[in-house]
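Q: Predict the bound structure with flavin-adenine dinucleotide.
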Amino acid sequence: MYAFEIERPKSVDEALAALGAEEAQPISGGQTLIPTLKQRLAMPSKLVSLSGIDELRYLRREGDALMIGGGATHGMVAREAATDFPGLAKLAGKIGDPAVRNRGTIGGSIANNDPSACYPSAAMACGATIVTNSREIAADEYFQGMFMTALEEGEIVTGVRFPIPQASAYMKFEQIASRFPLVGVFVARFADRVGVGVTGASNNGVLRWREAEEALAANFSPDALADVTAPRASDMIADLHGTAEYRAHLIPVMTKRAVAAAE
Amino acid sequence: MSDVTMTVNGKTVSRAVRGNELLVEFLREQLRLTGTHVGCDTSQCGACCVHVNGELVKACTIFAAEADGAEVSTIEGQANPDGSLNVIQQAFQDHHGLQCGFCTPGMVMAAASLLKENPKPSEQEIRHYLQGNICRCTGYHNIVRAIMAASGQEVEGGAIAAE
Ligand SMILES: Cc1cc2nc3c(=O)[nH]c(=O)nc-3n(C[C@H](O)[C@H](O)[C@H](O)COP(=O)(O)OP(=O)(O)OC[C@H]3O[C@@H](n4cnc5c(N)ncnc54)[C@H](O)[C@@H]3O)c2cc1C
Ligand code: FES
Ligand code: FES
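A: Predicted complex:
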């Protein structure tokens, strides 16, 4: 790792002030950033640790929505969302392993927007709102392709607001070495619509499978997907873990399983 | 450099650390607590697992500065006050839960976290919880048996040492 200093502010305001410094970068759980720093793929002069900011570590019910602070760890979401939003709690409980879940945060995951990250699929399927220190951004506008988001320099994710679906499930086909999803599908059924968010598959990052959303809104059953046009293999990631065709094939398979499992 | 103060295995320690100093480097190189191992240094293997404020954490994937003010426990703090092995450590010995022993400190720390959250885990729950702890020797079977035994549950075939 290159040399840098670490600051540990206690509030969002202090963090934003610290982030004003040249080449300063936030660190939340560090479960993505520390491996990146070890590979010398980042060269910040200063890390601003968000992990000591209590005001970012919460889950709370806001009417029909669940508001999750950017500093909430995957472990907190797995435990504390279990009653209000079991589909999301189960997604969080399958990220990495227990030690990763005790450090990694939803804010870090949403900010990083790894094309194989789990949370973005739920955010897209539910039509979540990404809340930052300065504004609110709809999930559809926030995720802008692999590792690309609407965040500006120095802007931090302070929370994510999820409308709570009537039923939902996340199905993750694990890439066996990393346990990231090779393909992961989040299905969310609301009173008036269905959302289908797909991660791990596309070269363009997380996507919504809109044809499936329409078919499932008319008939929420795995059979409804039989004749639906699937996302094209030509847009899919191909690597040593799976071909583009294989990933494309997994999308309907995992979507059907998620529909069958939705609770 | 910045100064950190933390409690490690019940003792308060204060040291100067580099910004990019990992907790595992701090424990091993500054405090000479070399029971916490570095297997991969890429957050995969779990040999470096310690507890920070009671939670299982990979010490290769947290900076020492981030543990400022925290309570840290390592494998060196796990034995009973009289120096004898604690229940989990003893079960690993009795059930042959280690061969080379490289992964064992992390396994014991992970097992302690599991049993705190779930005092009577099923075999499936144990295997699931250990997803982030890799062992190249044992094939995991005896590790799982040891944790079953440490939780006071019946283990088929009993203890190996007693056979
Ligand atoms: C072994 C292992 C397995 C994993 N498996 C999975 C998996 O199955 N599914 C999955 O989704 N993820 C997985 N992850 C990644 C994990 O979920 C990370 O915790 C997460 O992607 C990043 O969150 P973090 O809090 O650790 O962020 P950090 O690593 O601290 O930061 C990541 C990036 O986001 C920036 N950042 C951090 N917080 C904020 C913020 N609040 N606002 C703006 N920018 C911010 C940082 O500057 C950095 O660029 C795994 C990680 C490991 C090590
Ligand atoms: S050394 Fe930390 S996980 Fe392998
Ligand atoms: S006993 Fe050798 S790695 Fe586990």
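A: Chain A touches chain B through 27 residues (CB under 8 Å).
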